[in-house]
Amino acid sequence: MAATKKKLKVAIMGAKGYPYVYGGYDTMIKELGERLVQKNVHVRVYNHRALFSEKPRFVNGIECIYTPAIESKSLTQLTHTFFSMIHACFSDVDVIFVVNSGNGPFGLISRIFRKPTAINVDGLEWLRPKWKGLGAKYFFWASKMATKFYDQIINDSDEMRRVYLELFDTDSKVIAYGANSRESVDQEPIRKWKLESRGYYLIVGRLVPDNNADLIIEGFLKSHSDKKLVVVGDVPFQDTWASSLKKIQDSRLLFTGYVTDPNELAALYSHCYGYFHGHEFGGTNPAMLKALGYGCAILALDTPFNQEMLQNGKHGWYFTKKADAVKLLVEKAEAEPQVMGQLRNTARQGLTQKYNWDYVTEQYLKVFEELANR
Hints:
Residues 196-349 form the Glycosyl transferase family domain. Pfam families: DUF1972, Glycos_transf_1. InterPro entries: DUF1972, Glyco_trans_1. The chain has helices at residues 24-38, 76-89, 107-112, 134-149, 158-168, 213-222, 240-246, 262-270, 286-293, 304-309, 323-335, 337-346, 357-372; strands at 9-13, 42-48, 58-59, 62-67, 95-99, 117-120, 152-155, 173-174, 200-204, 228-232, 253-257, 274-277, 298-301, 317-319. By secondary structure, it is an alpha/beta fold. It has 2 domains: 9-178 and 356-372, Glycogen Phosphorylase B (Rossmann fold); 188-353, 3-Layer(aba) Sandwich (Rossmann fold), CATH 3.40.50. Strand 12 (274-277), helix 9 (286-293) and strand 13 form a beta-alpha-beta unit. Helix 1 (24-38) crosses helix 13 (357-372) and helix 6 (213-222) crosses helix 11 (323-335). The longest helix is centred in the middle third of the chain and has 16 residues, at 134-149. It is globular and about 65 Å long.
């Protein structure tokens, strides 16, 4: 009688947990984890204990382990992964999958225990303004350690692969971030903010300097546009930079804070005249993929990452890092409504196969199976 194939066991850690959908990594774990379960993989996700008032062991077939952390702004995420890694190494999981390059050093633990590992290292964290000084040095060092200790480095864009080859002399597998396309979204939810379809531009993202909301706001307010600029997002802590932005007085400017209702967010994306993307560091950006999936006309900061995502201008226009460049782009967008309409009509075509969650899952499964069989 043929032996039954052993069920693959994968542990996932480094984000807030499941089904806690807040940021890009959490979304990836949700989309990837649920699909892996459907493919008969045993998926274990390490949840940040303090964020979950209820702690069921299994949710939608995914095993949830609730590990503690030292609760402080700079230590929470790292200590949570440290405790999760120790737990996983003493368990019977076949493969450990970690997200976030900050967790690079913990690959040493799995190496000692001879557990196969993969890490998704994401963006250029050491260049982000919020990690000045010691924080920046740590992220650069941690990213380098990831290339030494983990069996497989995963990047989400060809440009990030090039960066890792150049800086750390290490090749990585490129598996993009996925997105879900959605058409004909009702505009009713945007009335909550007294907005009209195509009557506003949109920014979505954390209010941090490297997303350049200040630059976009300054450039937009310099223009003669009579549309609004809607800023969705905030920071989860008191921050002088974010507060100074929110104090700007102009009737065309609207700060919504976090929008957690998926239908409200879908409506905001779907009915904007143009979507501004000022993110400067990082590979495949989830907010940009959402904008493509909802059919937005995209106006993006000119970076190699944004060029790659928008196929070198096929699915959007670019601006340089100057307020006047934003002003000119707003005026161009309003002078050419037909071209903006065309960008909206073809945006979803930008979600090529590599951004399809089912395809993304297949790619990850192949990596996990190869690691388990080593």
